Amino acid sequence: xxxxxxxxxxxxxxxxxxxxxxxxxxxxxxxxxxxxxxxxxxxxxxxxxxxxxxxxxxxxxxxxxxxxxxxxxxxxxxxxxxxxxxxxxxxxxxxxxxxxxxxxxxxxxxxxxxxxxxxxxxxxxxxxxxxxxxxxxxxxxxxxxxxxxxxxxxxxxxxxxxxxxxxxxxxxxxxxxxxxxxxxxxxxxxxxxxxxxxxxxxxxxxxxxxxxxxxxxxxxxxxxxxxxxxxxxxxxxxxxxxxxxxxxxxxxxxxxxxxxxxx
Length: 263
Hints:
By secondary structure, the protein is α/β, with parallel strands linked by helices.
């Protein structure tokens, strides 16, 4: 079966917007990039060239003719005209997003998916009054998405289930690793997990236990290498003969269970 070629509108041509553009264009889709700042659009070509090289270095296959699939737009209407999916990547400001999504809902085709890259703001806060709000959801990437595939998909309470399923399917097709959050939650999941580790690192540094450089070394050359192969839950499941249940039960009891060192 021949894969359908979609048109993806990228709203906001900054770091995240251009990274998203690379994800979709390298997979063979048409990408229309909008930004209200002509100076920002002037830098897009150079940015995309750099991201394409990074993609190649990371082992991503690139379909030929990528440049010809990308168009730049100073008018929002032009970028949205044929869009199947709209990815907003503008400032983290509720009022800006609310005004913008009113325009996106009004100007885009009714069947187009409207997504936001916001890293912390629940989408229900700025889409509640939209006529077609059931097509809205968050697609929050690990940064940058053209090299890190992990992607959070966060529906609003009113997002249509078919929209969620379609979004997850499309992300998988272009090489992302989508994770569905079952409900809106402050900070979502990705940022909260990262924040928990950073807070403990800051505490250890502040207490004079370790330097910042060495804290990074422990994560980069320890956890980072392990986590590239196994997630933390998988790792502790292997750390006890009875799996994660035994590990948690015996965590504070050294006489319980047989815990393997090194994990």
